[in-house]
Every structure is written in C-alpha cells, then in structure tokens.
Amino acid sequence: MTKMSFTIFYLSRESNDWKKRNVYNVGNESIQGVDEMAVLVARKIRKTYGKRTLKQEVIKGIDLEVHEGEFVGIMGPSGSGKTTLLNVLCSIDFPTEGIVEINGKPLKKMKERDLAKFRREHLGFIFQEYNLLDTLTVKENILLPLSISKVPKKVAEKRLAMLVEYLGIADILNKYPNEISGGQKQRTSAARALIAEPSIVFADEPTGALDSKAATALLANLENINKERGATIMMVTHDPVAASFCSRVLFLKDGQIYTELYKGDKTRQAFFQDILNTQKVLGGDGYDIN
Amino acid sequence: MTLTSLVLRSMKKNVKHYYLYFFALIFSVTLCFSFVTIQYNPSVIEALEASGTATAGFESITYVLYFILIFFILYANQIFMKRRSKEIGLYQLIGMTKGFVFRLLLIENVVLFSLAAGIGMVLGFVASRFFAMILMKLMKNDAIVSLSFSMMAFSKSLIIFALLLAVVMIQIFIMIRKASLLSLFNAEKKADERVKKFSPFHMMMGIVGICLIAYGYYDSTRLFSVEGATTNNLLVNMLLILGSSILGTYLFFRYSVALIMNLIRKSKKGYLKITDVLGVTTIMHRMKGNASSLTLITVLTGLAVGIMTLSYISYYSSEADAKRLSPFDYILFDNKGIEFLNQLEAEGIEYEKTTFHLSMVNVKMSDLFNLDEKDAGYININQDAISPVVPLSDYKAINPEARLNDGETIITSYVDILSELLPLESGKKIRIHAGEKNYSLFIKDVREDEFFLSVLASASSPVLIVTDELFDEIQKNQNPEISTQIGINLVNEKDHEKAETLYKNLRERKIIEYDYQKTYKEYYDGNIALNGMTIFVTGFLGMAFLLTTGSILYFKQMGEAEDERESYTILRKIGFSNGELMRGIYVKQLFNFGMPLMIGLLHSYFAVKSGWWLFGSEMVTPMIIIILFYVSMYMVFGILSVFYYKKIVKEAL
Ligand SMILES: Nc1ncnc2c1ncn2[C@@H]1O[C@H](COP(=O)(O)OP(=O)(O)OP(=O)(O)O)[C@@H](O)[C@H]1O
Ligand SMILES: [Mg+2]
C-alpha cells in the first residue's frame, strides 16, 4: 500500500503560532483535501509505564489519523498496548511524549475540568465491562452525558427515540442494568456513547463479554450508525470477526503500528480473510486465531 | 506455608483495612481504661468524698460504657469481616478447613487485641489525668490531680478486654460457620440489596413513619401536662413515645426517604444531574441496607444530646437553684444567731441586711389553679395549700415599684415543677384563711422569677404579698413557726471565707435556728459537685456515643466509597470532572451525616423540652451549647469521609 505524506503549516488557534501538521493520505482512498481536518490526529505518541528502575515503554512512537465517518479497528496481541493507546487517544490517559489532537484541539494543554467537559461533549465511550451505573435505569444511563449540556429536552428526546430504535432497546428503557442481558447492556452503552452526538466514539473490546450472536448484533448496530449517521468510531478488538465490520484495521505489535488494512469495496467475508491472513503473517506470538 | 507466616502475610496485605479496626480497638481501650482509672484516682476520690457525692453514678455508667464499646467493636468487626469475606472464601477454596481459617483469624485478633490493649492503656493512662482534670474543673475543685496508676483499674480493663476478644471470636466463629463459599464471595454485594420498584405498601409505610414521629413529638409535649399525666400512666406514655419515635425513625429511613428520593427522581424524567446520580439515586438504593444503622445512629444521637443537655441544664442551673434555696448569702430566723452580725462587724466585714416579716395562711387550691376535680387527677383540689405572706413594705426591698390596694395581693416566687404544669393566672380572686378569719383577695400580679425567702421559710410555696394592714391582722390570728427572716449579703467577695467560718461556728454551737440550715455557698458547692460529676459522666458517655456513631458512619461510608469506585471510573471516563463528582458526593454526605444528626437533634429537642424543668431553670442556652459542641465534633467524621471519597474519586481514573 502506498502512503503519500505531505506537510502543511497552519495557524494554531490555541497558541496563536504557526505549527507544522503532517497530513497523511493513502493511495486507494479518495484524496483528502488539505482543508478537511481529521477528527483525530496523533503524532509521535510514546507511553512509558513505571518509575526509573522499572521503566516499560508500551507505545513506541505511533502516528495516527482518523477521518470523519471512519470505523477504525485496532488489533494486536494481548499486552501489545491496545488499551493503552486507546486511553491515550481518548484523553483518559496522557502520553509520555507526543501530541493528540481531536477536532484540532491538542488535549495536552487542557485542564482536568475542561478535559472532562470536552469528553462529555465530543467523545463517546463503550468499555468492555462496568459500563453502566447500576443505580440508574437504562434511560437515565443513556441520558447521563447530557446532564449538564445545553441540549434542549425535545432534541434529546428525539435523539433518544432514534437511538433506541436503531439499537433495539426501546422496551427496556425503565429497567435497571441488573435486569437486562449483557448484549442489551452493551447496546445501552452504545446509545449512551452516541447520545451527545460526539465527534468520535471509542470502544475498548465492546464485544469481549458477549457471545457471537450478541456481538454480531452490536457490531451490526455500530456499523449501521457509522454508515447511516456518519458516526466516527474507533474500536479495539481481539476478534477478527469484529474487526471485519471496520472500514480500516490497524495492527499493533510491540507498541508500534505494524500494518493497516483497508476494507475499501471488499465484502465483509473477503475483508475477514485479509485480516486472518495478516494475523498469520504477524506470526503466532499470542494471536488467538479462531 | 505455616499458619503464622500465613497470618503475618495476610495481616501485611490487609493493613489498609486493619488500621480502621485497629483504630476502633485502641479507641475503645483508651476510653474504657481512662474512665475506670479516674474512679481510682486518689484526688478524684477525695474530691467526691468531700462533696458527699456518691461514686455510684460512676460505676453504673461504666457498665453502659462497656456495653457501647462491645457493641461498637462487634459492629466494626462485622464491617471488617465483610470486606475480607472474599479472602476468607479464597482460603477455603484452596482447601483450608473452616477450623483452620478460624485459627488463623484467632491469631490475628489476639495479636491485634494485645497491641491495641498496650497502646490503648498507655493512651488511656495519660488521658485519665486529662479527664480527671476536667472533672475537677467541672466540680470547681482546685485540688491538683496526680497521675496515678491503679492495679485495680488495670485488671478490670484487662478482664473486659479479654471478654471483648471472646465475644468477637464468637462472632467470627458464627460468621465462618454460617457462611457458604458462594455467600462469602457475594457478601460485599449482598449487604446492600437494592430497591427496585416502589409499591403502594412502601408508600404507605413511608407515610406511617412520618406520622409516628409526629405523634411521638406531639405526645411528648403533653407528657408532663396535667391532662397528659392524669389520663395516662406516665411510664406507659413515655414508652409509647419512645417506641413510636424509634419505629417512626426506622420507617422514615427505610421507606420515606426512598419515597421522597424516588419522587424527586421521577420528576426529572430521566434527565438526572450528576448530583442526582451520586446523591439521590445512590441514597435511595442503599436505604434498605442502611435504614437500621441510620436509625440506630439517630436514636443514639438523640439519646446522647438529650442526656448531655439535661445534665448541662442541671449544671447550668446550679447557681439559680442555690439562690432559690438560699436567696441570701446567710439567713437568720427570728433573730436567732443575731450575734453573727456583731461578729461580722468585729471582723470589719461589710454586709447588707434585708429583713422580712412573714406569716402563714391557708389558700384554697381550687381557687389558685382553675381546675375542676376531674382534670386535676392526683391533685386534691379541695385541700388547702399553706403559703407564706409577706407585708408590702418588706417586699419593696425586692420590688420597689410594687403597689397594692385593699383586698389585693401579688403572688411571687412561684417557679417550681408545678409552675410548668399549673401556671397561675392573675386577675382572679382567691380565698384565704388565717386562723378563723376568711379573706377574699384579688390577684393583681403573678411574678415568677423572684426569690427572697429561704426554702426553710417558704417550703417552696408561692409567696403572697399583702398590704401591711392585712398582714398585721393575719399576724394576730396566726402563730407561725418563723416570723422574721434576716437575709445577709456580703459586700466584698474576699470576706466569704471568714464569714463562712463564723457562721459554721455558730451553727455548730446550735445558736442558729436550725442546725441543718445551709449557707448559699454550701448549697452552691453541693450543687456544683453533684452536677459537675453528673455532667462529666454523661458527657463522657455522650462522647463515647458520638465517637462510636461517627466512626460507624465513617466506616460505612468508606465501604460505600469502595463499592462505588467503578461508578466513579465510568463517570470520569464519560466526561465528568472531579469537582462535579465531588458535588454529588457532598450531597450524599450531607444526607448520610446530616439526616441522622438532624432527626436525632429533633428527637432530643422534644425529649428535653418535655421535662427539662425537672432538671433546672434554663433550657435554651445549655441546649444550644451542647448542640453546637456535638455538631462540631460530629462534623469531623463527615469531613473525614469526604476526604476519603476525594481520594477514591481521584484514583478512579
Ligand atoms: N497502569 C499500568 N502500569 C504499568 N504497566 C501497565 C499499566 N497498564 C498497562 N501496563 C502494561 O502495558 C502493557 C500493555 O497493556 P495494555 O493494557 O495496553 O495491553 P492490551 O493490548 O490492551 O492487552 P489486552 O489485549 O490483554 O487487553 C502491558 O504489558 C501491561 O502490563
Ligand atoms: Mg486491553
């Protein structure tokens, strides 16, 4: 795959200074205009855990860009740093080095309070487990991100109705999390992640705790929302089937991007085969090929 | 792995949990040991003997203290064990027998108890001097308190502590025996079962709870009224009030709170604020598990504040009470011991002298109290009350403004237990008779806070002021036991000591009218010693209540914070800041600490209000002081728990 890169200079809104930004465009995708900004840009990300003596570099310099409407999957062996990367990208954690920008906003400079607000308004999250507050009903859980926002109730109500329709959870709105199934829980999380119409949704193994049927349903929902509503999604997964729903899959190995695959016009089946093949090429270091 | 190495390892790992339990243990030993040591402190014993105050109060309170501490330790141990249930389950899962686990915990507890006993006794020993000093200060005794170790106190405390260890081990034994593996793994979750739906039954119980509390309060206001006291048995009534307020409190916490919270929540139609999420909904869901402990804390708070306030009222009223018994520094009757005045002059002691002539008349009770026979119950209104009369010209020394026409009277010095029950009204007629003669007098005025006759002269009856003419007439027909009272006040404070000796000398030589006639200072000292000891003992008890309830709340909140850690993680991740989460937690803490405190204070307010006048003459100031003191101490625990939450929230992401 050919990668073509060029550099633009732009006036940073925050620092009021000229900054360099690399824009990567990839051959078999439609050419991105220079003015069309990526939703998420990560530059030279490094993440080191531990103190001086027991230093462990988990992310070893990653450059990454996600465009609007993309559904990006991240795959890699256990311990390769997928969760770490995601946490760094979504502002839950900070990189030791490097810059993350979302909607052109560098996260590093923000204060905790602004960062929280930013997350609430611009980002959506689905985690593997412990997604919902069990003292709240499904509806209350979904509406949580709107609790301080200025979205009018009418609009919120409309969004809610549409989302629960898409996700097929309309009739469990008044139940508590301990009264619904794991798949329903994850779909509830998806609804919560989308209710504030975020610029990008981050999902860390959202299907990890589901059986294949529930997982497929959730993924189909996500794909649907990605295609029809243009939601940008970034998902970490172990599962090649799950990854085959994505439009692009990044392969992580030893804290670096090993390679990436584009779905393009391929069918899901064909893309799934590609993913399996890539995993094989990557070798048997911890990949669970099933 | 040997048993001991396993114990050591698990203790090391559990230090985080242990320190709490350990603190509770040390705290208990300190309180217990210092309280027992005080009773054996020679300076204290001397002071108590000198004032003629019995140590019986001390001893009975000691048992109450033991009881509180045992309860507290059992509670702390229960919380502690619940948190470790997973670990205990794990031991069994890898094949240890229950007996082995029990032995493991036994060793742990013996180590903990021994350490706590050692540290606690050292602390308690030091604290005992401090407490003894407070006691002496309260009794206004200047004696210097020495630090003295009592073998008796030591062995007593050791026995109690050994007993405590045994009880705790029994508790652990039962817990281990009862617990299945599954329940051990779920103990943390099971503890606070969650309410789901609200049935009409819950709603009704919620309303019943509030009604019961209201009834208890209402009933308490009439507990000591004449109607209340006569239509019902006092004791039955008291138990009724107690029962209905405690049950009401429980139902309030168990149902009413959830009911109210659910209404608030329903009104938001799904759009919850972060304060609702962390305040309203968590409180609501935890009420089932928390209701009984919150009730207990409420009741203990009410009890503690109640008894402390009542004993502070007594203490606060020591001076006023002494003044009522002996309105002047020294009092002489019928000129007996009049040489006291000469002796004072000889010593160059300045004094002021007020003389009252007095006589006795019979007053019809039914006239005084405006009661018919049915209402009066145990008061026989057909009886005559015997009241002293004082001529207006003498009374002017007290109230220079007083004026009387023929056939008028002023009733004064009427504050007593009866005055609350049966207030006197001015503007009506009363019939009195002296010897064979009857008079009808119009009550011009009723003055309550005015005392000038010694209790020996007035027998605590209200005093009638009459015109000088009428007094002379009465005097002729009546031959009272005491016909004059001379009140002597010293001008200079410094002369008191000398005057006191002179007076006592005369009294010993039986020159004073009654050999049991006390001076103002003797009354005052006696009151202060007795009330000082009482307030010390009840204050100590109140502190024990406060510290135990506060600690229990704090422990519980620590547990809740741990349980909710995951929720905080989720909330922080999806974009709520530290500060926003803390705001919700403040609401929750305000509720958890504020509610039992407020209701407890309300309980104690009504309890104290119903009968405070049995204890003294001033309610508001002592009550406010005690409440301020209690609330500020209590707040420390609230603040501690907020800090704990702060830590957890901060770590959540
Ligand atoms: N908080 C932390 N402190 C120290 N090391 C950490 C921390 N979090 C993760 N690591 C280490 O970083 C490495 C990558 O962890 P990460 O969770 O990102 O892996 P992953 O790819 O998500 O694995 P999995 O597929 O099992 O979830 C691991 O070796 C882990 O031990
Ligand atoms: Mg992971």
From TrEMBL, chain B:
Domain called ABC3 transporter permease C-terminal: residue spans: 61-180
One GO cellular component term: plasma membrane
UniProt GO BP: transmembrane transport
Pfam families in the record: FtsX
Compartment(s): Cell membrane
Protein name per the record: ABC transporter permease
Transmembrane domains' residue ranges: 18-40, 60-80, 101-134, 154-177, 198-218, 238-264, 294-315, 528-555, 590-608, 620-645
Keywords assigned by UniProt, alphabetized: Cell membrane, Membrane, Transmembrane, Transmembrane helix, Transport
Domain of life: Bacteria
Family in the record: Belongs to the ABC-4 integral membrane protein family.
Membrane topology, record value: Multi-pass membrane protein
